[in-house]
Automatic annotation (TrEMBL):
Pfam families: Ribonuc_L-PSP. InterPro entries: RutC-like_sf, YjgF/YER057c/UK114. It comes from Sulfitobacter noctilucicola. It comes from the Bacteria. This is Enamine deaminase RidA (YjgF/YER057c/UK114 family). CDD domains: YjgF_YER057c_UK114_like_6.
Length: 120
C-alpha cells in the first residue's frame, strides 16, 4: 500500500521537516496543527480549518476522525473551545485527550492532532 504525504505549506513544515498529514494503512494521520487568531477559540477554529483541508485532500472528513489530541499551554482555556469542537465533531465524536504543555511559540494557545479512518 502506497503512502501519501499531504503538505499545507505551513512555515514549520520545511523548518522542522514534516508534512501536514500522512495517509497510510487506511488511516489519515494529521500532524499537530496550530491556527491563527488572538484568542484560543479563534486559534481552535483556524486549526480545525487547516485540519479539515488536510482530511479532505486525503478523502476523509471530521466524521471519520477516530482520535484527537488537544495540547494547550493553559488547560483552563480548553473549556472555551468546547462549543467549536462540539460543532465540528457533532454526532461523530472521536476518542480524545487533552494535554497541558508548552507549544512551539508562546503566541499559540492550542495545537490539535487527529487520526482518521479512511472511508471504505
Amino acid at each position: 500500500m502506497a503512502i501519501k504525504r499531504i503538505h499545507s505549506g505551513g512555515e514549520f513544515e520545511s523548518k522542522v521537516g514534516y508534512c501536514r498529514a500522512v495517509v497510510a494503512g487506511g488511516f489519515v494521520h494529521v500532524a499537530g496543527t496550530v491556527g491563527q487568531g488572538d484568542t484560543v477559540e479563534a486559534q481552535c477554529a483556524s486549526a480545525l480549518d487547516i485540519i479539515g483541508d488536510a482530511l479532505k485532500q486525503a478523502g476523509a472528513g471530521f466524521a471519520d476522525v477516530v482520535r484527537v489530541t488537544y495540547m494547550l499551554p493553559d488547560r483552563t482555556e480548553f473549556e472555551n473551545c468546547w462549543p467549536v469542537l462540539a460543532e465540528t465533531f457533532g454526532t461523530n465524536p472521536p476518542a480524545a485527550t487533552m494535554i497541558e504543555c508548552g507549544l512551539i511559540d508562546p503566541k499559540y494557545r492550542i495545537e490539535i492532532e487527529v487520526t482518521a479512518l479512511l472511508p471504505a
